[in-house]
# Entry
Amino acid sequence: MTEEHGRPFAAMWKLLSARFSRYLDEKTNEIDHHDVISDLVGRTELSPNYLSSITLSNLIALLGLLTNSVAVVIGAMLISPLMGPIFSLGLAFTMGDLVLTRRAIRNITISILLAVFVAALFTLFSPLKGATHEILSRTRPNIYDLLIAVFAGTSGALALCTRKNYLFTTTGVAVATAVIPPLSVVGYGIGTWQFGIAAGGFLLFFTNLVAIVISSNAVFYSCRFRGSMAAESRYPARRRFQILGTVLVIISIPLLYTLVTDIRKVKLTGRVENILRENFNHQLKSRLTAVSINKVDGKYIVAATINTVKYVEIDEQQKIEKELTSQIGSAKLELEQVIVRSGAVEPQAPLRAITPAAPPKPETMGTLQEKTVALLREGCREVESFIAPYKVSVCSVTFSDQKKPMRVTLTLARDYPANLQELHWLTTALEKKLNEKIELTVETTPYLPPIGFTEKDELDQGSIKTLQPLRQLIAQWPATRFSIETPLTNRRTSRQDKKRAATLKDYLVKELAIPADHISLASGNEKLIHLKVTN
# Structure
């Protein structure tokens, strides 16, 4: 009975397979296989133009990463020619062409070494060494990055074969998979001696490389590229599939681990936030505004900030702490309470008598400038909401003749420069406030003063007091990243400075509940140790 029922399904499967095979035969007849092979073989040439394009796109990507500029990083992706030899490697696996495989692997290997060396050398001499968000976002790939590269590689290989929307598709593939920025991250990690960042960047690059090769291999095989088209010696198909399958399994292990870790972190954060909202979100009484979670010595440190009309008592905090412990394990609640007022503001008493207004004084150049300065200061206070948590420390204006716009200078208390998008937004906001065109210059000053230490290499009291606001900063902006910069002496950091940097990091983690993976170490050009907020 089972065999009789199975026969119709087998016949249907055979019929569908035959129709699909005929459909592929019809479509592949339109493909100029020799033209595609000639194109991809040509992309394995190591010409001076290719090497210069790799170098320039790598430097552009690195500058975009160091300045935290998404637009610059995307531009570097479009310039990079590295996608060509990767597709050539996919075709070589499909046909089993050993000579093309060696040429493609040689091209890719030289490109990797060149990009990493140039990025490391540039980073070593660059004054900007902080780990920005654009850098850190390319150090923890997961299985979704593999899937993105598979889909993008499939689309790019189809465009190569059919020549339909070729330019637009390959541009999208270059942006989606991003093979050059991860190599720049590898060079950055080596140049700053942060090998964890370098390893994460290389894992992302290798993930994209493997996914594109496998997906393009599947497309080329479906498009009837075969070993008989190879002009040189061929490699057995079975061995090719074994190699690709083994590499895919190996690379999937760390990607799945990262994905599972991220999912657990999201679920943990969700459970903690639900408990805190149930206890603190009471209309007209209190409201939860920020939460951050950090694990120190096997114990979860939950830092929460609330707006409240009345301080929460110790007994209630301990009750919430026990509830957190029952849900997530051993936990400690660090609560920051901001007293606010609920309800409407009482109206002011009416004036008993209204005095006649004095006649307005005639406008002079001095009074006009005073009004402009007052408006500018008000505008500077308003734009602080855009650059939060940072402040505008200096706001000045220089007046010129009527033919030239006034020059406005802002000094931001933060450790990395404003990008083009921020400059555009700040200029627009201030011009709208002043109702006049301006020439804007944005400068930066360190967010924190240099860190001081005692003779026993412990933090001095002045630095401990200076660091206290960071507890509220990380509670309100949990994604904030920090960089400890130590001075260089003859291209090396002294043992004492390394010890002091370790002491500072230990204090930030244990006392201020800053996640350890949010703190990086770097070498700076200053004579003292600095703690910088990188994003």
Notes: The mean pLDDT is 77. The chain has 18 helices and nine strands.
